Amino acid sequence: MILLNIPETGKIVLEFSYLLAAILFVIGLKFQSHPHTARKGNLWAAAGMLLAMITTLFLHKDEAGNAISTTNAIIVVATIIGGSILGSVIARKVKMTAMPELVSFFNASGGAASALVALIEYSKNPDSAILVTLLGLVIGSVAFSGSMIAYGKLAGKVGDIFSKVMTYINLVFLAGIIIIIVLVISGGQTADIKQYLVYGLLALSLIYGVSFVMPIGGADMPVVISLLNSFTGIAAAMAGFIYGNEAMKLGGILVGAAGTLLTLLMCKAMNRSLINVIIGSFGGGGASSDQVAGAIKEVSLSDASVLLSYSQKVVIIPGYGLAVAQAQHICHELESLLEANGVEVKYGIHPVAGRMPGHMNVLLAEADVPYEKLVEMDDINADIANTDVVVVIGANDVVNPAALNDPGSPIYGMPIIHAHEAKNIIVMKRGMGKGYAAIENFLFYDDKTRMLFGNAKDSLQKLVTEIKAM
Questions:
Q1: Local confidence band at 84 (pLDDT 50, 70, 90 cut-offs)
Q2: How far apart are alpha carbons 165 and 172 in whole angstroms?
Q3: Among 127, 220, 379, 397, which one carries the catalytic annotation?
């Protein structure tokens, strides 16, 4: 305790705690790469953040050598406790189907916090780290408003605006943001004019975040969520540079880098460039129902249960429809029942199935499906031709053969799970509604495909009952 009263020693301990926090962040990220250790990873990363907050609270000193005042310390501690309780309650009450919305909301919160930090610090010291401050303000504001629009889209409260005009409008907003930043940095204005310019920059950035996300279709939401997540990380890193806080810098850089890498991986999974995702709408066009060869054929519950029970290999391909029906637990029960009858069951996971990266992995992990049964697209495709039955539950575009054989389709070239190569195909859907790409699914008209219409949870429950009765 005596050593901590020595300013230089306290600074060394503080810096070392930031290094240790960064190491805990990295360890946490590593653990989160596997569902079995993901919970542990969250705890390690949270421990790193808690360590950084505590050491900053007790050891940080401003340029004048003053420690954090008692009043401010009480406010910080109360905020940490209140935020922890609120976050815990929200996380426990949110349904798995609403997890993408929750992620978007958290992204928005992080962006708003970073933007407020930049705005407050500019008002206190307008000549300090001006470029970093303005970038933090812009990126944080875009992350906030863009994430809130993404939240509204995922919740079905905000629609899409598919118009080429939006591309030009966004370019005008972006040019305006750049011009204001240059004006503020170049100087030559009075303090009042510069302040008005900064407020104008805040408003324009918020509007740009809205217009940036509005034209992006539902099929691209996994990409947008990971991109906005990277924006939030970058904004947090900017706040770290403003404060000279190493923990914020490292944490923000890690989140920004991870989000950017994930965004690029999502684009690769859709065979599209990031620019194409941002400025191009995904959907419409392609084949109509009268252009598709073949006819829709249904299957009864009894026939489906017999087919599944006497198969050797079954692959289940989940999609957002599984999440909407909250059918992951009954799906796991079906899988266990079939395995008890000697059937080998695996899950084919497409990288962009659902509404956020890894959505299906998280959904099935909640139902205690063994991670080893979740097989990525490239690996499962190698085994589909030897599969007796593929069961498609709520997936659409990610199994549409149009991506392989229809050059006029908007999803042409997108990697898909080759469900059409299986010996038999059962598709569970409520009706003949189209996927996010708003095109006909060639798979539904395949000679080997049988449709099992109805709510996925109800259909699976009836299948389980039928198989047990056998």
A1: confident
A2: 11
A3: 397
One DSSP character per residue, 59-95 reads H-B-TTSPBPPHHHHHHHHHHHHHHHHHHHHHHHHS-
Q: Which CATH number fits the domain 289-469, given the four candidates 3.40.50.1220, 3.30.420.40, 1.25.40.390, 3.40.50.150?
A: 3.40.50.1220
Which stretch of 32-41, 429-438, 440-449 has the lowest confidence by average pLDDT?
A: 429-438
Q: Write the DSSP assignment of 134-186 as a string of letters.
A: HHHHHHHHHHHHHHHHHHHHHTTSS-----HHHHHHHHHHHHHHHHHHHHHHH
- Residue 208 neighbours by CB distance under 10 Å: 22
The domain ranges of the chain are 1-93, 97-282, 289-469
User: Rounded to 5 degrees, what are φ and ψ at 383?
Assistant: -115, -5
Element (H, E) at 317: strand 313-318
Check: CB of residue 212 under 8 Å from CB of residue 144: no
Q: 146: which 2 tokens?
A: 């863009």
Q: Which amino acid is at 85?
A: I
Dihedral of the alpha carbons of 273, 274, 276, 282, in degrees to the nearest 10: 100
Structure token digits, residue 124: 């206190």
Q: What is the pLDDT of residues 454-469, one digit of tens each?
A: 888 989 999 999 988 8
User: Following DSSP, what letter does each residue of 272-315 receive, concatenated?
Assistant: --HHHHHHS-----S--GGGS-S---B--HHHHHHHHHT-SEEE
Catalytic residue list contains 458: no
Instruction: Find out whether 7 and 61 touch, Cβ atoms under 8 Å.
Output: yes
Tokens coding 353: 């199935």
Query: CB neighbours (10 Å) of residue 397?
Result: 27
Say which residue the tokens 């503020």 belong to.
Answer: 184
174-219 pLDDT tens trace: 899 999 999 988 877 777 888 889 999 999 999 999 988 888 766 6
